[in-house]
Give the backbone structure.
Amino acid sequence: MLNKQSTSTKNIAANIETILYDEECIKQRVKELGSQITRDLAGKVSSENPLMVIGILKGVIVFLADLLREIDLPMELHFIDMESQSAGTRETGLQELDGRISAAVKGRYVLFVEDIVDAGLTLSFMTRLLWQSDPSCILVCTLFSKENNRMMDIELDYVGFELPPVYVVGYGLDHDEQYRNLPFVGVLKQHNR
Ligand code: IMP
Ligand code: MG
């Protein structure tokens, strides 16, 4: 299965059991998502009212870097770091951390970008918080979705791939902070999990 691995990451790729999505396949899908977003939002955002793209750190960075370059619309880029918030201080911490984001959201088109929506807790929390700042519209784009694991009722506007309930790494996604630099997405060998 490892016939399409990149030579630049062959050391870490040795820990991968199966590649689920190779570089070409991801690239093609990211292109399609970018075109779809561009088509849907053309005429709704402008240089006076640019799209607010909000990336949820940090698994999203690789996907987001590629997606941005496929969106042909005026836009601003923001990030929210959920991982730095402990459960007890999440709400207040985020409001303080992202005061600049909430101040700018009123009347805007917002596109949340995620790497994976699993149970949906992160996204449900983020959208609930952001609606308080009165945006015109919140759209959600995720590269992967694990619908079978969902605990929250959330609407996804753009989904790259529907995943089976397996843990995947690569293309920004980690296992204990490693493997984000793999150019493809796959499942780790049993003894590396
Ligand atoms: P949720 O709040 O349960 O939807 O969790 C989503 C977050 O969990 C993602 O943004 C990832 O950071 C992490 N996550 C869920 N599934 C995976 C996976 O298969 N690989 C890597 N990270 C994952
Ligand atoms: Mg994440």
